[in-house]
Write a structure and sequence with these properties.
Elements (H helix, E strand, L loop, with lengths): L8 H35 L2 H32 L2 H24 L5 H25 L9 H29 L3 H18 L15 H14 L1 H17 L5 H8 L3 H25 L6 H30 L10 H30 L6 H30 L1 H22 L1 H5 L20
Length: 441
Amino acid sequence: MAAHPFSIHNYRAYWIARLASTLAGLSMVVVIGWQVYDIARETMGIREAAMQLGFVGLVQFLPLLALTLVTGWVADRLDRRWIVRAAIALELGCAAALAWLTQTDTITLPALFGIAALLGVARAFISPAQQALAPNLVPAASLPTAIALSALAWQVGSIGGPAMGGYLYAVGPAAPYWVATALFGVSFLMMMLVTPVVRSTIARIGNPLMQMIEGLHYVRRNRLILGAISLDMFAVLLGGATAMLPIYARDVLMIGADGLGHLRAAPAVGAVAVAVVLSWRPLKTNVGVKMLWAVIGFGIATTVFGWAGPLMTRWFGPEMIGSELAPAVLVSIVALIALGAFDMISVYVRSSLIQLHTPDTMRGRVGSVSTLFISSSNELGEARSGFLASLIGPVIATVGGGIAAILVTALWARIFPELRRARTFDPPASLDNSPPEEIKA
């Protein structure tokens, strides 16, 4: 019987570190967005302030775009543990700086943009190394469960972190940054407890540039992986609504900073509920089709969220908004819960397919390409939402994005039939991605 990953010391420490760093990093995202919008709103109009939200996503994406090939190659050449530790240390410094600037009421837009860019650098290095490290910590028989649990830690942190940031910001503007600093400290200490592991590495001979490009070639040739990560990129790029939440909380639903915490928490409820179900009843059949339907559900939930407040207010009057218990606000929260649930299913399937269909010698470089696609959907999605909201308004931008996500999924199901044909997570028999057998429970 395969050892459970949590029975392995290295994996337990890694999992706690991944969860803590994800919670910390993404709790800061909501606060940075709120502060940028709040500062800009005082001196600019709503649409101009929305454009500043777009720039937040852009400054985090540009370092990733510039460093993708390098970070993947580094993750396949160097000790992945130390790459993760160094990136977490940088994130810790950023969190502490934001906490101090906010506490002393000296925070400015240039400071927020500069630190957001540094967080983009840290993410560029940590993502491929962290993803590729997980399979090195467990024996081959435990690998599928380890990958699922690793995806679970990321998804719970990525949804729960922003919710935590929203609630802590309501307590005090500096509170989420101080908590993030503490969580990064926990994450760093946990990573220091991970002992050396035996793993495969790429050959130290050969052209480094060509080795970097091999990751791109592998993704391009493997249509299942290409279809999975590009579907996620375009669906979230077009349909992502999280960048609009500060605008919806303040100017559409009229529920302020406290209400922003509720909006951020709603996807966490859906994601955690689905994560618990998947931990007991993992998907085993027709995984590709289930991922496609999950992305369609994500688009529908985004559309409902975007329209709920404005339409209900127009039909029934202003009493539909303005408090956490107002009908339009409750409908919006339910839509966001559904959004988080569908997103969890999609992330679970995509992460498992990528890890299990990639050899260990390529995981860093393939992971960096995947991170670029994911960041394109997240950071560029925020930029797209902000810029589009400044041109046509937040409601049309959100609703149009949800509809576009549905159309993209239908198109991808036709362009990449490999997604429809993916019955299980089992890799091809020719692919050897087993970790070294020296790893013990």
